[in-house]
Write a structure and sequence with these properties.
The protein is an alpha/beta fold. It has helices spanning 16-25, 39-48, 62-65, 87-92, 105-118, 152-163, 178-184, 192-196, 218-221, 241-250, 269-272, 288-306, and strands spanning 7-10, 27-29, 51-53, 74-76, 96-98, 144-148, 167-171, 186-188, 201-204, 229-232, 255-258, 277-279, 314-315. It contains twelve helices and 13 strands. A seven-stranded parallel sheet has the order 8-7-6-9-10-11-12. It has a six-stranded mixed sheet with strand order 2-1-3-4-5-13, with helices on both faces. Strand 4 (74-76), helix 4 (87-92) and strand 5 (96-98) form a beta-alpha-beta unit. The longest helix has 19 residues, at 288-306.
Length: 320
C-alpha cells in the first residue's frame, strides 16, 4: 500500500521534525496536545487506522486489541520497550509490532552512571555553601558495579564504568562471548544472588517481562550490602518498590537512583519522602538527538511495511 494511502494515528506529540516527516509520507493524524489518549480514544484510533504509533504510556492490552478494526496491521511503537503492548495477542490477530531499539543506548548509559553521583546531593535542594562535611558521596572509582541485563545498554554502561575505573560484574540470561567480556573486562555471575551480595552499585538494565517482574524482590534486596546503591534506568516493575522503600527507610540499603517506577508516574509517596534517593521522571532517553532518532526508526518501520516488506525492527514473541 502506498504510504500516502496508509492511515497512521500517533497517540502523543512527537518532535516537530518527526511529525513533519510523517505528514510528508503518510496520511497521519497527529495529536493537538501532549496528554495521553484515553482508552476510548485509543479504541477509536485502533478501529480506523492501518498503523498505530503508541508510546509507553499507552496500555495496548488484550481487551483493547479485541476492539481493533480489521485495517490495523502494524503497531509501530515509539520506544524500545514493548511491555505495555500485548505482543502475543497482537500477533494472533495478525497485527505486527515494531519498536525502536538501539537509539537510546548511549543516553541511558550516561544517565545510569550519573545517578550514583547525584546521590550526594539528595533531594533537599538546600545548599548553604561549601563545607568539608557537606553533601558527601562515595567515590565510584574502584567500586564494584553489578549489571543486571547485559544487552546494548548494559554493555554501554560497562564501557563507561571501566573508563571510571570500576570493576564490572554482570548477570545475564546468556553469558557473553569471551571477546566481548574481555573488551569490558567483565566478570560473569551465573547466580544473581551471589553477584547482588558482592557489588557496591547494582544497575538494572534488563527489560520488563513476566520472567523479570520483581526479579529484585524483598529476598534479593536483603542480600545487598548496607552500603550498596541500586540504580534503575530500565523498567520499574523489575524491582519490588514497596520492599525497596522499606529497606531504604530502615537504612538496609544506602541509596537508590531511580529513573523508572513500578506504577509509572504514580510514585510511592513514602519513596518521595526519603533523602537517600534521587528520583527522575523517566528521562534516560530525553535528549533531542535520541528522540529524533526514535522517530526516524518509527518512520522506517512504517515505510518498509507500506512497501510490502517486514519492518526491520519487528518484535516477535521469542524476543520477550
Amino acid at each position: 500500500m502506498p504510504g500516502k494511502q496508509l492511515s497512521v494515528v500517533v497517540t502523543r506529540r512527537l518532535p516537530e521534525v518527526v511529525e513533519t516527516r510523517m505528514k510528508e509520507l503518510f496520511n497521519v493524524t497527529l495529536r493537538d496536545d501532549d496528554t495521553p489518549m484515553t482508552r476510548e480514544q485509543l479504541a477509536a484510533a485502533m478501529q480506523g487506522a492501518d498503523v498505530l504509533v503508541p508510546t509507553l504510556t499507552d496500555q495496548i492490552d488484550q481487551r483493547l486489541l479485541a476492539q481493533a478494526g480489521d485495517r490495523l496491521k502494524l503497531i509501530a511503537n515509539f520506544g524500545s520497550g514493548v511491555d505495555h503492548i500485548d505482543v502475543h495477542t497482537a500477533r494472533q490477530r495478525g497485527i505486527l509490532v515494531a519498536n525502536t531499539p538501539g537509539v537510546v543506548t548511549e543516553d541511558t548509559a550516561d544517565m545510569t552512571l550519573a545517578l550514583p553521583e547525584g546521590l550526594a546531593l539528595m533531594q533537599s535542594g538546600e545548599w548553604a555553601g561549601w563545607a568539608p562535611t557537606a553533601m558527601l558521596g562515595g567515590r565510584i572509582a574502584g567500586r564494584r558495579l553489578g549489571i543486571l541485563g547485559m544487552g546494548r545498554i548494559g554493555l554501554a554502561v560497562a564501557k563507561r564504568a571501566r573508563a571510571f575505573g570500576m570493576s564490572v560484574h554482570y548477570h545475564n540470561r546468556k553469558r557473553l562471548r569471551p571477546e566481548i567480556e574481555d573488551h569490558v573486562d567483565a566478570t560473569y555471575w551465573e547466580s544473581l544472588d551471589q553477584m547482588v551480595s558482592r557489588v557496591d552499585i547494582l544497575s538494572i538494565n534488563c527489560p520488563h517481562t513476566p520472567a523479570t517482574f520483581h526479579l529484585m524482590n524483598a529476598r534479593r534486596l536483603k542480600l545487598m550490602k548496607p552500603s550498596a546503591v541500586i540504580v534503575n534506568t530500565s523498567r520499574g516493575e523489575v524491582i519490588d518498590e514497596n520492599a525497596l522503600t522499606r529497606m531504604l527507610r530502615a537504612g538496609e540499603i544506602a541509596g537508590a537512583g531511580l529513573d523508572v517506577f513500578e506504577r509509572g508516574a504514580a510514585i510511592n509517596p513514602r519513596l518521595r519522602e526519603l533523602n537517600n534517593v534521587v528520583l527522575l521522571p523517566h528521562m534516560g532517553s530525553a535528549t533531542v538527538e535520541g528522540r529524533a532518532e526514535m522517530g526516524e526508526k518509527v518512520i522506517i518501520n512504517i515505510k518498509t511495511f507500506a512497501d510490502g516488506h517486514r519492518p526491520p525492527d519487528l518484535v516477535v514473541p521469542g524476543m520477550l
